[in-house]
Amino acid sequence: MVQATPLLLVLSLALGAHSLSPRKCNLIGHWVNDLGSHMKVFTVNEDGDFSGTYLTAVTATMNEIKESPLEGSLQRNNHKGQPTFGFTVNWTFSDSITVFTGQCFVDKHGKEVLKTMWLLRSRVDSIEDDWKATRVGINIFTRVQSQK
Ligand code: BTN
């Protein structure tokens, strides 16, 4: 029984590490998407609220692009890992708003990937133009590896 203890310990550590692997998804950090836009998430609190900054690579306007704040929410029921989330970017250089919704996945190479969909609402002058005011799309984010 005494000799079995280290074996059980190694076994439980191995099984534990395996079942923990999907939980590797952690939104905090620096991300880049398929358009070349950069997103930084600074903090996620115990309720799942998070904040950060977004530097888009593209714009639907003629305005000069500036870094903009984002506020989001990570699903609180994250017992199984690979959590869902949503966030809003309140553009500082335009009168638009973008909402993103997505899920943090760990791919087959163990790499974190954020698969998102977004709605970009542009301001229009009249209700008659409402029909053309919302764009929709997808973005895929991967983590920017920190320089060592
Ligand atoms: C604007 O043009 O009014 C603000 C910038 C919008 C950028 C959009 S948001 C969805 C898509 N994903 C990005 O990274 N950038 C564009």
UniProtKB/TrEMBL annotation:
Disulfide-bond pairs as recorded: C25-C104
A GO cellular component entry from the record: extracellular region
Record-linked SUPFAM superfamilies: Avidin/streptavidin
Keyword terms, alphabetized: Biotin, Disulfide bond, Glycoprotein, Secreted, Signal
Pfam families: Avidin (PF01382)
Family (UniProt): Belongs to the avidin/streptavidin family.
Protein name: Avidin
Protein's organism: Oxyruncus cristatus (sharpbill)
Taxonomy of the source species: Eukaryota, Metazoa, Chordata, Craniata, Vertebrata
Gene name linked to the record: Avd_2
